[in-house]
Design a protein that fits this description.
The structure holds 2 protein chains of 2 kinds. Chain A is of the alpha/beta class. Chain A has one domain: Rossmann fold. Helix content of chain A is 20%, strand content 27%. Chain A contains 5 helices and 11 strands, in the order E-H-E-E-H-E-H-E-E-E-E-H-E-E-E-H. Chain A is globular. By secondary structure, chain B is α+β, with helices and mostly antiparallel strands. Chain B has one domain: Phosphoribosylformylglycinamidine synthase subunit PurS (Mth169, Chain: A). Helix content of chain B is 35%, strand content 28%. Chain B is built from 2 helices and 3 strands. Chain B is elongated and about 45 Å long. The termini of chain B are close together. The relative contact order of chain B is 0.34. The chains are: A alpha/beta, B alpha+beta. The interface between A and B is medium-sized, with 19 and 11 residues.
């Protein structure tokens, strides 16, 4: 499968993302933000993490107007798989491709550490290799990861099984590092082809680096 | 003309920065502060002198870029 990875000025996780997907057997292409089309054979488009446009104004707000984003929207509208990690998640909410918004962390600190996550819904392409209530250990690294959605939006997320991941401790008990509504760490859109999460599965691909739980998470994209 | 855009988190959306500033004011013994909201101000210098069209234009700017209306409110003040 071809995985295309977006690169904005300030993106800094594109090479980790490339490493992770190549480890899973994919071929990868980096796509510069000034491009206006995606590689034809793209099977998954990843909006990688980092600090696109210096996080000026709001995280992800300026990236939304990059030339490539028109092609990204068309790709997603046609049912193409899109994954936004960290800043990529922020770009997707700012682009209204995913509901809600990501606010400053509740205690205002930048958080960079491993955190456990619980799988809330495996009923989608991304997490199909996992089981509900599986616990994974994945790094988080963000300042604006405090997921917000209004009560009606939250109900809709649950009604459609769009809540993918929740922050928890190693035993699966809810543990909220950043103030997110219902400790939500990742969601998808209604059609379940656009996914966003704050944690970094692409940084959890080798046990020597603390966890390889990212392998099982990301491998879902390679199953039909 | 100048357009001054004040952006703040919506009522009901927790303002963590406002809360932290409130705690700091308490620590400094400033009494009687009931609530603190922290926002941002964007000042635009416009070539137009027509307030009606300027307000319309700046509103579009707020809706499309300057504010995230999922979590933020904005107010526009025009000064000639």
């Amino acid at each position: 499968m071809k995985v295309s990875i977006l690169q904005f000025p300030g993106t800094n996780c594109e090479y980790d993302t490339q490493y992770a997907f190549e480890k899973l057997g994919a071929s990868t292409s980096l796509v510069w933000h000034k491009d206006t089309s995606l590689p034809k054979d793209t099977g998954l488009l990843v909006v990688a993490g980092g600090f696109s446009y210096g996080d000026y104004l709001r995280s992800g707000a300026i990236a939304r107007f990059s030339p490539i984003m028109k092609a990204v929207k068309e790709y997603a509208d046609d049912g193409g798989m899109v994954l936004g990690i960290c800043n990529g998640f922020q770009v997707l909410t700012e682009s209204h491709m995913l509901p809600g918004a990501l606010k400053r962390n509740e205690h205002l600190h930048f958080i960079s550490r491993h955190h456990h996550l619980k799988v809330k819904s495996k009923d989608n392409r991304f997490l199909q290799e996992m089981q509900n209530s599986d616990i994974v250990n994945i790094p988080i690294a963000h300042h604006d990861g405090n997921f917000y959605i209004d009560p009606d939006g939250l109900k809709e997320l649950y009604d459609n099984d769009q809540v993918l991941l929740q922050y928890c401790d190693e035993h699966g008990k809810t543990s909220n590092p950043n103030g997110s509504v219902d400790a939500i760490a990742g969601i998808c859109n209604k059609n379940k082809n656009i996914f966003g999460l704050m944690p970094h599965p692409e940084r959890a691909m080798d046990l020597i680096l603390g966890s390889d739980d990212g392998i099982k998470m990301l491998s879902g994209f390679f199953k039909d | 003309m100048k357009a001054i855009v004040n952006i703040s988190l919506k009522e009901g959306v927790l303002d963590s920065q406002g809360k932290a500033v409130h705690h700091a004011l308490d620590a400094l013994k400033f009494e009687g502060v009931e609530d603190v909201r922290v926002g941002k101000q964007i000042v635009l210098k416009l070539s137009s002198s027509d307030k009606v069209s300027a307000r319309k234009e700046v509103t579009e700017m707020c809706e499309s870029l300057l504010a995230n209306t999922v979590i933020e409110d904005y107010e526009i003040e025009l000064i000639i």
